[in-house]
From TrEMBL:
It comes from the Eukaryota. InterPro entries: Fungal_Dehydratase/Hydratase (IPR053112). This is Hydroxyneurosporene synthase. Transmembrane segments: none annotated. It comes from Lepidopterella palustris CBS 459.81. Keywords: Signal. Residues 1-20 form the signal peptide.
């Protein structure tokens, strides 16, 4: 007869295996704390959590993706995004968006909103722009970050606590994307809070969930179109692959790799990412892809990327212009990395060249 004790162990094991989202514990380097990655980038994180002048910075973005296992045993992929500043000389403007995919049911909802009633702090991180509110409760403005979304079908209230090394794209946090852009992330957020699915509020199971907070600012974006893949691999690496089409002579084919001890490596990516499984955005009509093959020669890496659900367009349905529209799809990855088999999960961000979208008024 199986003792109760064994039964509990089996149940606990099954529960931990049933979530695809594996948290990776921080492995402090030889000198202990996270001092390396809090100071590795070329700017002060606290200073740049505050909104930068929107007349110069067309991109002023606070974006979080969430990989959640909830108390209903379903898995979710969520996006929350507060952004200020537009392009092409238009008046500075605010935009918020959120999405929720129930991976278990394949049910998806998303919306981009231009908030009318916003109050944005200029000296702290408090972007109150109903139906979204993005803010920090910690003195350094990044150790605790909360996003509350009241967007129907993508309703949540999630706090991410910084855990483990920060992630600096290109190693320094600065690279060319249309113009000089700055981007850093907290990729191992410890998340608590709730999500609302099918009119029921569910708790997040923190041990089987995580978030990737991304702060980006710069005077322009890659309006020639881009693909961005952000993913967690089973060999404990966190990877961001940028593939940007040419803008003013600059292209982007770069992988930034974060190791568990906090060190970064930057690799060139084969510019042919083999997009396949085309499908059309339900609102904009532009073409997105459901599969890619990404090659990183310096790591002998071959990565087959798949979107299990062909959904991810977030826009204003009445005005699906290039500025209002972004595609964020849940992806899985399998392949090999330096001779070892790897699997993983992440986000596939897609944007076609700006001139392919419906034009605004
Ligand atoms: C970073 O910026 C914050 C806010 O401006 C400031 O209080 C802090 O002293 C700065 N840190 C360093 C190391 O300069
Ligand atoms: C802004 O506030 C007005 C008046 O309370 C309300 O009618 C409107 O729906 C609000 N807009 C948003 C985007 O929340
Ligand atoms: C922040 O600065 C902008 C531009 O100077 C100004 O229009 C806005 O009112 C300020 N917001 C707050 C909350 O002070
Ligand atoms: C979101 O959750 C936090 C932490 O539990 C709580 O303090 C806050 O009041 C909640 N916000 C809303 C709008 O419910
Ligand atoms: C970057 O943007 C600034 C401000 O708009 C502009 O002066 C500069 O020429 C741009 N540089 C490039 C390389 O596009
Ligand atoms: C949503 O809830 C309703 C009422 O409880 C139920 O009938 C329906 O099957 C649920 N839908 C999904 C997708 O779970």
């Amino acid at each position: 007869m199986v003792s109760l004790e064994y039964l509990f162990i089996w149940v606990a094991l099954f529960a931990s295996l049933s979530s695809p989202f594996k948290r990776i514990d921080f492995q402090p380097g030889p000198f202990g704390e996270d001092a390396y990655t809090e100071n590795a980038g070329i700017y002060n994180l606290t200073e740049f959590m505050v909104l930068q002048p929107t007349s110069y910075y067309g991109v002023n973005s606070y974006w979080t993706i969430y990989f959640i296992t909830a108390s209903n045993s379903h898995d979710y992929f969520l996006v929350g995004h507060c952004n200020a500043g537009f392009f092409s000389g238009a008046a500075p403007s605010l935009l918020v968006r959120a999405s929720m995919l129930d991976i278990t049911d394949g049910v998806y909802s998303s919306l981009t909103v231009l908030p009318d009633n916003a109050t944005i702090s200029n000296d702290t991180y408090n972007f109150y722009a109903p139906p979204l509110h993005c803010y920090s409760n910690s003195a350094d403005l990044f150790s605790s970050i909360t996003v509350v979304s009241e967007i129907p079908g993508a309703t949540f209230n999630i706090t991410s606590l910084s855990d483990g090394p920060k992630f600096f794209d290109a190693g320094s946090g600065t690279f060319m994307w249309g113009n000089q852009t700055n981007e850093w992330a907290i990729p191992n957020g410890y998340v608590t809070g709730t999500i609302t699915y099918n009119d029921t509020v569910y708790d997040i199971i923190s041990s089987q969930s995580l978030s990737w907070f991304d702060r980006q600012w710069g005077p322009a974006d890659g309006h020639g179109g881009w693909q961005l893949f952000i993913f967690y691999l089973s060999n404990d690496l966190k990877v961001c692959v940028w593939h940007g089409f040419e803008v003013d002579g600059f292209t982007l084919n770069m992988a930034t790799i974060l190791y568990p001890d906090g060190h970064h490596e930057v690799e060139i990516v084969d510019p042919d990412i083999h997009p396949s499984v085309p499908f059309l955005g339900p609102y904009s009509g532009v073409q997105y892809y459901g599969a890619f093959e990404v090659l990183i020669p310096g790591k002998n890496a071959y990565l087959h990327i798949t979107l299990p659900v062909l959904a991810g367009e977030i826009t204003n349905p009445k005005l699906p212009t290039a500025s209002y529209t972004l595609f964020e799809g849940y992806m899985t990855v399998e392949g090999c990395w330096e001779g070892e088999k790897v699997t993983g999960f992440g986000d596939s961000e897609q944007h076609q060249p700006y001139d392919q979208y419906p034009q605004g008024p």
